[in-house]
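hi! just following up on the protien thing from before. the input was this:
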Amino acid sequence: MKLLSKLFDRTPKIETERLILRHMRVSDASDMYEYACLPEVTRYLLWSPHESLGYTRDFLSQIEEAYKKNEFHDFGIILKENRKFIGTCGFAELDMANFKGEVGYVLNPDYWGRGIACEAVNAVLRLGFDRMGLNRIEARYMLGNDRSRRVMERCGMQFEGIQRQAMFVKKGFCDIGICAILARDYAPTGTEEKFTNI
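and the predicted 3d structure came back as:
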């Protein structure tokens, strides 16, 4: 945990060719609510559409507090071309005892199909392997979410199988697919990420 504190005690930022990944802020609420209220975005997620802009503000306020306690390791995705907050990407879970992490991501559908999710995930993979010393990074998706699985595979993750009815989400049991990549198989994408305060 000392390593995590060292990495995340200040405001970390990752810069890629088109993106800035940084801590989320309450001031991001309008941009987040723009996509977080959409059923098509949350269809394959654990959470339901945000019911109001106020709900999103409260959520981000809780996230800001979690950052201070080193309990949250997810980033907001900022598009450089317009400085708009368009999604999130980071570690949904970290198991430092086993040098393992789980990456997760959500993106505003206005920006789907542009390779943005892959660019963000690749930056987080590099953070995990090169800066945090992780050995394994995995990602999970609900069966049917083929778009998410394609992102995982384009980032070098291998499909490992399906856990049948592994999670009860919203109103029923869901089959969960798992993809993962190991440090020994990780190869940087060729684009240089810039890390600040990490």
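Helices lie at 2-8, 29-36, 39-42, 53-68, 116-131, 146-154.
Residues 126 and 188 are 7 Å apart (CA to CA).
cheers
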